[in-house]
Design goal:
Blueprint: H1 4-34, H2 39-44, H3 46-49, H4 61-86, H5 95-116, H6 131-144, H7 147-155
Helix pairs in contact: 1-4, 1-6, 4-5, 5-6
Length: about 160
């Protein structure tokens, strides 16, 4: 049984993996769809700066870094949910359950982000990217959440 401290550390690690992988996916999709890898993360900073952020295509500390940090914070929060529900069995012996757990948490994140919270608190990826790109980003989230446990299991 993991302690609260261990679970929190696992959530921070899982969240960092998820935050980086979803940011990279958003950047790649931004490059493909908008010729701007910074546009999706800039749009995420609409939470702080309003819709002006979604119109920014160039990388900047103000919009891009803020968007990255907001995305990272959200990824850590969703990783905490994942770790609380599925983290104890995230290893190669339970890979199917781990992946299903990642998919369930990513689905919950999508429902929360686009149907439960006010528009000002959405991730903002929907502003510069297509619905298909959103599906890809949430798919990356779901696949990345179990990675911490799978890698740890492989290292044993």
């Amino acid at each position: 049984m993991r302690t609260i401290r261990e679970e929190a550390m696992d959530a921070l690690i899982s969240g960092t993996i998820a935050g980086v992988t979803t940011a990279l996916a958003a950047a790649a999709l931004g490059e493909r769809e908008r010729s701007s890898p910074a546009a999706p993360l800039n749009a995420t900073s609409h939470i702080v700066f309003g819709d002006e952020a979604a119109r920014q295509k160039r990388p900047s500390l103000k919009y891009t870094l803020t968007g990255f940090l907001l995305n990272h914070a959200a990824a850590v929060m969703w990783a905490a949910v994942y770790e609380a529900l599925f983290g104890r069995t995230t290893d190669t012996r339970h890979l199917g359950r781990s992946l299903a757990g990642g998919a369930a948490v990513a689905g919950l994140a999508y429902l929360t982000d686009y149907y439960l919270v006010p528009e000002r608190l959405t991730p903002g990826f929907e502003k510069p990217l297509s619905k298909g790109a959103l599906g890809t980003i949430f798919g990356v989230l779901g696949l990345s959440l179990p990675l911490r446990g799978v890698v740890r299991s492989l290292m044993k």
